[in-house]
Amino acid sequence: MKARVTVTLKSGILDPQGKAIEGALKSLGVDGIASVRQGKVFDIELAGADKAKAEAALKQAADKLLANTVIENYRVEVLG
Amino acid sequence: MKSAVLVFPGINRERDMARALKLASGNEAAMVWHAETSLPDGTDLVVVPGGFSYGDYLRCGAIAARAPVMDAVRDFAAKGGLVLGVCNGFQILCEAGLLPGVLMRNAGLKFVCKEVHLRVERSNTPFTRGYNAGQVIRVPVAHGEGNYEADEKTLERLEGEGRVLYRYCSPDGTVDEQANINGAAHSIAGIINERGNVLGMMPHPENHVEDIMGCTDGRGLFAGLAAHLDRAA
Question: What is the pTM of this model?
């Protein structure tokens, strides 16, 4: 089973990397960019076929390690 | 003083730290590998040194904070044992939940490697008793992620409880934006936990302890710890 965990900065948290990317996109002349926030994507392969179990394991992975919930939010998707 | 210096893959300041501890106390520090599940008997100070544990993968300090030895450090701290984290060590202690907040990318986006001035905010703690309150010391920093941030409530608590021990300042002790080398909230360079037995700081006092280093302002921290622990022993 394939899954994806997406980790993003909470709103209001300063994101200097996102700001730098935003500046670079603007200087490249890419039209219509209002703002950029950088995050992380984890593509995870799971053993087993139980979707509920997979979601629980992924949530545990995110809470314990993948995200620092002081500054980050995460989203878990089981892609099947 | 019987200190234990934790060693993680990618750490590179452990020997500087061990040398500073030996100078202050006369005792060799034990070097403790991250896979250990206990600390040496009689340990009264645990030091998490600087470097780039696990290549700063995921987030600075995130993987080291989950190493087996950290459970032993958590138990040690819960019993009141003294823990000092410097640079990557500060990041590891935050990630391990032993200190609040987080160290973000420097506001100026650049790695900062230079000498800075710190104002010692209090002298009545084991980590600052070698200094006077208000004293300005000169120590090096070398980090890309030292911008301390926490939510407003946490910052209020840190300030209200006198838990900010070191702040970036100008040579005359002025705390302002210009002296705040990484954009840290409230110019925070070092904080203690609620109980006052865990300190995390970004600057490297261990690199200013001998005349050959050009400055010995870092000695006070280690001398203070040694004095505190020898009196307690």
Answer: 0.94
